Amino acid sequence: MATTIGLQDLPPTPLLSEKHSGIPERWAEQCKESKARLYSLKTLPASVPREGELPVLPPGIDRPTFNTAIAELKETLGEEHVELNDKPLVDGWYMEHPNTHDTFHVLEQSKLVSSAQVYPGSVEDIQTIVRWANKYLIPIYPISIGRNMGYGGAAPRVPGSVTIDLGRRMNKVLKIDGNSASCIVEPGVTYFALYEEVQKTGLPLWIDTPDVGGGSVLGNCIDRGVGYTPYGDHWANHCGLEVVLPSGEIMRTGMGALPGKNGADNPSWQAFQHAYGPSVDGIFSQSNFGIVTKMGMWLMPATGHQSYMITFPEEDDFEQIIEIIRPLALNRVLGNIPQLRSVIQELAITGRPKSDFYDGKDPIPMEVIKAHAKNMPCGECAWVFYGTVYGPEETRNSQLDIIRQEFSKVRGSKFFLPEDMPEDHYIHPRARICSGVPELRELDWLNWKPNCAHLAFSPITPTRGQDARIVHEIVTRLHKKWGFDSLPTWCVSGREMHYIAEILIDRSDPDEKRRAICCMREMITEAAAEGYGEYRTHLIFQDQISRTYGWGNQALMRFNETLKDALDPNGILAPGRAGIWPKSYRDKGWEILPEDEPRTSVKTNGVIH
Ligand code: ADP
User: Fold this and answer.
1) How many CB atoms lie within 10 A of CB 251?
2) In the list 121, 220, 308, 356, which could disulfide-bond 169, CB 3.0-4.6 Å?
3) Which domains does the chain have, with CATH numbers?
4) What number does the ligand 1 atom closest to the CA of 223 have?
5) Which residues contact 607 (CB under 8 A, 6 or more apart)?
6) What contacts 30, CB < 8 A, 6 or more positions away?
7) What is the pLDDT of residues 114-147, one digit of tens each?
8) For the chain, what is the mean pLDDT?
């Protein structure tokens, strides 16, 4: 039974002024409400006693050696900057998340855990930690904020790794440059924090934020996350990295490799991405080849904007809708990364649980969803398209004319502006996100189930109706087979779309977790057989997905392994991340592949528990 917790019973979320990952004052009230909604459905206890000797050790390291190594690290960095993971695990919630494990555990909570967390205060500290890891052969796992929810959160892939929580002490916006419209951030700068810093400058600049603003600008970017302004492709808009390599050496990419006058940073570091020679930035995203300590990011000159929403009544019309989207996206009439969302999300984003809409345990039928939508501001429909146009009013109006005209070809479509919708409708936070203002509202669909976690299946398709149909059909069928509601969204970036299907899981239900894993495995396999691959995934699917990119008898993986072995001969940095295992781990049973399923456990030390 859900415990009813009143607003007054919940401790407040730390403010940004108190903690680097905290909530800025201006969102404090919204944060309090989000938290109360989520906790009102929580039936799991805050923590459970842990079993076995703690902390969980890194593979191949005995306890005396581990204790010696930790004592040495404490001695070098300071006692207070090294913390053993030997206390009960607390999942918390988005704004107060753990750095000890995956808060959205799809395996047992205790499986993907660190042995310790370490908090470097400088690049030199990071170099010290890396050299220490090489000395003791202890795997280390860097995180920036650790809110990579749905993809593993703060958890390391190898249990017992030492998590380097970079964000706690390295969280400054080092520079905001109004001339080149760019900034340099340390790992612990969240979208909320960067927004605040940009506001303080008074410069007419926007940041680009993903759906929720608590992640780090750096961590999200190197995991190739997306946002929704015209700068929504985060990796495409980064400019210049500073990286500590697994050897402990430090390097800068792009123009940053050329020292500025008298030892200054290169003046073009944040102005030109490619510089000279091989473009190596890419190998530091979704990889385990280096620890990124600074990153340049482009900011968007502020401009006029107008958000809108279009509803479509027929579920089967999505092919036609996508065929209309493609030329509009390619011609940049659609100014941003718009979303085509299933109407079920209009129900979920209200923050009300599924049980308010449907009694059954099975996936909620479309007729039921539509019947509810009829009484909601969007009205009876199957799809909702959220878009924004940018620029001066005249430009926006002419773009909107074309958009209205093109989408009116879909029978029964209806066009809305934010002012047509009530104040609490989702279009308002959506409009803010699409003009670079971080938000929390997207968390509300996590109230669909008690103890709700999400797991994203996110394949890429060309922006073409026939491709969309193949993937959508696989997802719909397999969600139904494994008993999950399907909540698809297409995020359209132009020539391609990220199809994001979130599986919602009750963390207290082991069988639901097992089914979610089975569903993911089958979707990955079936989509790959049709030629579609995912752009990003949770830790436990990284082996499977990386191997679907197997053209030329796994040529890409062999290349990545060659790089890994050259850069990290001791295999200490995030072994297994992105499916890339160093030679000391390779083919020793660490990989988790579909033939291991159905299982809800993970291999540690090559043994299946
Ligand atoms: P966020 O900051 O958005 O909450 P995370 O800190 O969880 O995201 O980062 C996402 C993933 O990217 C991490 O799990 C980790 O594997 C990797 N990562 C994050 N920060 C760094 C970094 N500074 N250097 C190398 N890898 C990183």
Assistant:
1) 13
2) 121
3) 13-27+42-165 (3.30.43.10), 173-301 (3.30.465.10), 305-538 (3.40.462.10), 541-608 (1.10.45.10)
4) 12
5) 589
6) 440, 441
7) 999 999 999 999 999 999 999 999 999 999 999 9
8) 95
Please give the number of the atom of ligand 1 that sits closest to the Cα of 577. 16
Question: Mind listing the pLDDT tens digit for each residue in 212-268?
Answer: 999 999 999 999 999 999 999 999 999 999 999 999 999 999 999 999 999 999 999
Mutate to test the pocket of ligand 1, among 147, 148, 169 (most ligand atoms within 8 A of CB): 148
What is the pTM for the complete model shown?
0.96
How far, in Å, from the CA of 538 to the mean position of ligand 1? 13
Q: If you take atom 25 of ligand 1, which residue's CA is the nearest one?
A: 291
Residues facing 497 on adjacent strands: 461, 492
- Residue 462 tokens read as 């060309």
Atom number in ligand 1 closest to CA 148: 7
Tell me the DSSP string of 345-402: HHHHTTT--GGGT---SSPPPHHHHHHHHHTSTT-S-SEEEEEEEESSHHHHHHHHHH
CA 530 – ligand 1 centroid, Å: 31
What pLDDT shows up at residue 392?
A: 98
How many Å apart are CA 507 and CA 454, to the nearest integer? 9
Separation CA 175–CA 532 (nearest Å): 39
Q: How far is the CA of 218 from the centre of ligand 1 (A)?
A: 7
Cβ within 8 Å of residue 546, ≥6 positions away: 557, 578, 579, 580
CB distance 443 to ligand 1 below 6 Å: no
